[in-house]
Amino acid sequence: MKKLIIFDLDGTLLNTIADLAHSTNQVLQTLGYPTHPVEAYNFMVGNGINKLFERALPEGEKTEENVLRMRQGFIPYYDVHNTDFSSPYPGIPELLKNLQEQGVLLAVASNKYYSATLKLVNHFFANVSFVEVLGQREGIAPKPDPTIVNDILAAAQVAKEETLYVGDSGVDMQTAIHSGTTACGVTWGFRPKEELQQFNPEFIVDSPAEILSII
Question: How many Cα atoms within 13 Å fall on the side-chain side of residue 174?
Answer without folding.
Answer: 11
